[in-house]
Amino acid sequence: MTALTGRHRSFSRDFPVARDLSNLFSASRLLLARLVGAGAGFLTQIVLARLLPPQDLGLFFAATSFAAVAGLVLTQGYPGILQRFITRYRERRRAHLLAGFVWQVQSETVMLTIAVTLFIVGAGVLWPGLSSDQRLVALSTALATVAAASLTIYNAAASVERRFELAQFPETLIRPIAFLPLVFVLDRIWLVSAGTVMVLYTGLTSLLAVA
What we know:
By secondary structure, the protein is mostly helical. The protein has helices at residues 2-51, 54-74, 78-91, 95-126, 132-160, 164-189, 194-210.
């Protein structure tokens, strides 16, 4: 019995070490993913700078930046408080409050996102003097904004569930790595412009958001 008790204590002491090692490996994977994704993103910027004229390049970067910022604004700060409320309701076993909170986050984000998306679409269609390519950028930006808001909310939810790879990999690793070869394919089979590149970026981002 003494031997078994000693062995049990030994395993109990080992479990925190194993947990720490697992957290360290997870952090290392996330760091490596960020580095690889940043490298792929940097290469993509160089390629786009060679393929697009300065005006189109600036328009593409402005559109993607707008979609990213709008995605943060449309979530109204909810990603920052998901951890607090979800953890609190689970600990107190308030399933109805948790469901109500999740519904509130989703419904408010969806309504505000629809309003902003319709505004962008309307501006892109009705604004006088825009070229067809610029209108394509506007329409793609509207859809990219929806995808960015979705990723912002659900990436935060994945972090609450401690699924950090799921929360980080789509935007920091998968999209940069996938976008670079797709740009080369677009250059081979179609006209490379701010509109077509934005469509490609939006399609990839939307696919990741749906996934």
